[in-house]
């Protein structure tokens, strides 16, 4: 989609009748729409190019009155349900699954139903139906169709769990996707108005107007975990006739409104994200953008607000006269770079879809790899077309895949829990270490190069020299408490199963953080006794220890000089000049500092704080004391990782929102958002053209050019 200012019209398309349902391609390239039949015009289905509004494919059906529309998570299938005009009541409702790439019908079946939904893995399609019988939910095989896999009397709209194994029903029950059998029932005495899975799939959130509370339940047994009341403005009671509400996709936010007030609440605390708006009109529909950055209120106005501040970024009166009427519904694109609305004209009678821009630059997902468990670490070698991910399923696995296509290269099971994944700056090997006491080196085909044991204690941290890639440092705890320095290459006489260190340096407490300076002269370590120590890389001699008032979260050397930054729980960042053993003025923060990162030239330092501050700050390091350049509070969510581009001033921020936010570190201006679930780790390729994200059970590779 072309980049545009918020609310700029990007494209439009016209139809014989008003559009009933709309769905976006998960990659944002197209959107599909369905419209109702008229006396002289058939109903139908169409796939539109999102950039131009041009029709790519269409399917006409003389008797179609659409009931629902859904797209699979990979964008290869669309489910369309509708009512036929056939006089035979046995085929009153139908479902068709269509390939959006060709417009061809993959399969069709009767009966269909309301609210079609694909499971996240794309294997199943559920519908709610009530043709000639009591309401029930039916589940179809999404690939084959045919008769339903099962049908059960779950009358309300159902929701799939993130791993596709369960369905959450309106009757407060969790049912097996495979069989439809109820596996647990939520323990609540309240009339819950809506339920949704949290992203981890282990718990469920429910909202009820009765008491204005959010309840959380365990999926395994339905037990009530917590009850959180919304902190409402004094004296406000929602009008039953006009009230509306909706969860964000990840259940982190809840928007509620009536004719007199609109508010967005943090579901973890019950607190409003901003001072509630007094009135935005009588709400017809509420919705969130894909990454929670925007909330939309559709009344006689369309109002779109920033969820972190409440600032109105777009507001427009919706025509109700002059023959043009917009229908309820705001559909944001998956990348957040646009939104679509539908409407109709009265003279002559016709319908339309209009696509508007938001000013965000669209993100291009180059490839993705679904893994066997939550992804905990990622690295990418762009020139070699290799991406590496560590996942924690039933066993820890290192997966190497093609960064251009997502095709698997190799999987390597790793005993224990992996604590460190580090790619060499030359992008020709990587090391993995963890709780099984072994440091392993692999080439980019996943072939083992050597391994080094560590006295049967866990390896807490490992680092590769950032410029030459010749050295690897490790830190241990337990009964060992050593720093070891290894060379990249084995000597002629060495056993690849027992690579020996150049030296090891005993420490008085466990070593949890390690970093090597760009000139290979210094090794820095962070220890559990709250001290940072500088060691001489030549022999492991401790040059000096620097005490802190809190535990050390991260240490990292500048890529341009032997300057070390430490992130600490006491809210401080210390800058240590290694050659002189001197400390620059401390940088203070209101809460714990969870991450630090240097820009490619070492001129800027980014810091990220934890709860409740949750702010990224960028500091200029050119003067005698660091000076604050920007402090953009991107989202009110916990920050998991930050990373500078190695070639530009862009800074990537991963947090507990379903997107990685890219900003210009010199201005704070947002550049783009990379959609997905909450990213736990991120990494740029050496040339800066690609960025890999670790989100839930998926590793995604995005183009950054």
Describe the protein in words.
- The protein contains no helices and 65 strands.
- The protein has 705 residues and is an all-beta fold.
- Strands 1, 29, 30, 31 and 32 form a 5-stranded antiparallel β-sheet that branches.
- The radius of gyration is 28 Å and the shape is globular.
Structure keywords:
705 residues, mainly beta, five-stranded antiparallel sheet
Q: Helix count, per DSSP?
A: 0
Q: Determine the mean pLDDT.
A: 87
How much helical structure, as a percent, in the residues?
under 10%
Shape: globular
Strand content: over 45%
What structural category arises from helix and sheet content? mainly beta
Rg (CA only): 28 Å
Q: How would a textbook summarize the main sheet?
A: 5 strands, antiparallel
Oligomeric form of this entry? single chain
Ranges where pLDDT stays below 50 over 5 or more residues in a row are: 87-91
Q: Please provide the count of β strands.
A: 65
Please report the distance between the alpha carbons of the first and last residues. 16 Å
Short summary of the structure?
The protein has 705 residues and is mainly β. The chain is built from no helices and 65 strands.
Fold topology:
Layout: E1 9-15, E2 19-24, E3 30-35, E4 43-49, E5 55-61, E6 65-71, E7 78-83, E8 93-98, E9 105-109, E10 114-118, E11 124-129, E12 136-141, E13 150-152, E14 159-160, E15 166-168, E16 173-176, E17 182-185, E18 194-197, E19 203-208, E20 213-218, E21 224-229, E22 244-247, E23 253-257, E24 262-266, E25 285-288, E26 294-298, E27 301-306, E28 312-317, E29 324-326, E30 331-332, E31 338-346, E32 349-357, E33 364-370, E34 375-381, E35 386-392, E36 396-402, E37 408-414, E38 418-423, E39 429-434, E40 438-443, E41 448-453, E42 459-464, E43 471-476, E44 482-487, E45 503-506, E46 511-516, E47 522-527, E48 531-536, E49 542-547, E50 552-557, E51 563-568, E52 572-577, E53 582-583, E54 587-588, E55 593-598, E56 604-609, E57 616-620, E58 627-630, E59 639-644, E60 650-655, E61 659-664, E62 670-675, E63 679-684, E64 690-695, E65 698-703
């Amino acid at each position: 989609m072309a980049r545009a200012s918020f609310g700029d019209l990007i494209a439009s398309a016209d139809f014989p009748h008003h559009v009933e349902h709309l769905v976006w391609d998960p990659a944002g390239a197209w959107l599909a729409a369905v419209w109702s039949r008229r006396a002289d015009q058939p109903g139908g289905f169409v796939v539109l190019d999102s950039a131009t509004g041009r029709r790519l494919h269409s399917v006409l059906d003389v008797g179609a009155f659409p009931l629902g529309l859904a797209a699979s998570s990979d964008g290869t299938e669309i489910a369309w349900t509708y009512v036929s005009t056939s006089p035979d009541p046995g085929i009153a409702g139908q479902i068709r699954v269509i390939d959006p790439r060709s417009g061809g019908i993959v399969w069709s079946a009767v009966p269909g139903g309301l609210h079609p939904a694909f499971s996240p893995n794309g294997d199943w399609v559920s519908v709610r139906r009530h043709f000639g019988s009591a309401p029930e939910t039916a589940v179809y095989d999404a690939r084959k169709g045919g008769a339903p896999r099962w049908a059960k009397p779950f009358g309300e709209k159902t929701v799939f769990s993130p791993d596709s194994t369960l369905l959450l029903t309106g009757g407060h029950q969790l049912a097996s996707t495979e069989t439809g059998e109820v596996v647990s029932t939520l323990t609540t005495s309240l009339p819950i108005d809506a339920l949704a899975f949290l992203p981890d799939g282990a718990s469920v959130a429910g909202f009820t107007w009765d008491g204005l509370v959010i309840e959380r339940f365990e999926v395994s047994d339905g037990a009530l975990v917590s009850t959180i009341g919304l902190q409402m403005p004094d004296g406000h009671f929602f009008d039953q006739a006009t009230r509306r509400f909706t969860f964000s996709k990840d259940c982190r936010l809840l928007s509620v409104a009536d004719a007199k007030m609109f508010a967005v609440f943090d579901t973890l605390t019950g607190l409003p994200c901003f001072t509630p708006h007094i009135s935005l009109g009588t709400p017809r529909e509420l919705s969130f953008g894909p990454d929670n950055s925007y909330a939309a209120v559709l009344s006689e106005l369309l109002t779109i607000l920033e969820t972190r501040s409440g600032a109105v970024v777009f507001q427009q009166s919706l025509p109700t006269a002059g023959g043009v009427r917009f229908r309820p519904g705001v559909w944001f694109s998956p990348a957040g770079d646009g939104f679509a609305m539908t409407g109709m004209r009265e003279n002559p009678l016709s319908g339309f879809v209009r696509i508007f821009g938001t000013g965000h630059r669209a993100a291009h997902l180059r490839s993705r790899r679904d893994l066997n468990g939550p992804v905990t670490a990622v690295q990418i070698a762009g020139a070699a077309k290799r991406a590496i991910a560590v996942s924690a399923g039933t066993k820890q696995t290192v997966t190497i895949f093609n960064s251009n296509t997502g095709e698997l290269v190799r999987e390597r099971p790793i005993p224990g829990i992996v604590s460190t994944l580090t790619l060499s700056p030359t992008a020709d090997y990587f090391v993995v270490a963890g709780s099984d006491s072994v440091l392993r080196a692999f080439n980019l085909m996943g072939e083992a190069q050597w391994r080094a044991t560590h006295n049967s204690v866990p390896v807490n941290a490992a680092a590769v020299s950032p410029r030459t890639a010749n050295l690897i440092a490790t830190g241990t705890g337990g009964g060992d408490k050593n720093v070891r320095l290894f060379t990249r290459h084995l000597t002629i006489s060495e056993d690849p199963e027992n690579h020996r260190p150049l030296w090891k340096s005993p420490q008085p407490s466990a070593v949890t953080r390690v970093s090597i300076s760009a000139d290979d002269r210094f090794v820095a370590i962070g220890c559990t006794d709250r001290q940072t120590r500088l060691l001489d890389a030549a022999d492991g001699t401790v040059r000096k220890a620097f005490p802190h008032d809190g535990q050390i979260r991260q240490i990292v050397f500048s890529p341009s000089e032997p300057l070390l930054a430490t992130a600490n729980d006491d809210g401080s960042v210390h800058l240590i000049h290694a050659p002189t053993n001197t400390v620059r003025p401390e940088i203070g923060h209101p809460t714990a500092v969870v991450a630090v990162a240097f820009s490619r030239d070492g001129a800027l330092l980014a810091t990220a704080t934890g709860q409740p501050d949750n702010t990224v700050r960028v500091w200029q390091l050119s003067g005698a004391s660091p000076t604050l350049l920007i402090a953009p509070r991107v989202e009110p969510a916990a920050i998991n990782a930050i990373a500078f581009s190695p070639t530009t001033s862009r800074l990537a921020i991963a947090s507990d929102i379903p997107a990685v936010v890219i900003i210009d570190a010199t201005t704070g201006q947002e550049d783009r958002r990379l959609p997905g679930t909450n990213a736990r780790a991120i990494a740029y390729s050496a040339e800066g053209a690609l960025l890999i994200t670790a989100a839930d059970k998926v590793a995604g590779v995005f183009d950054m050019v």
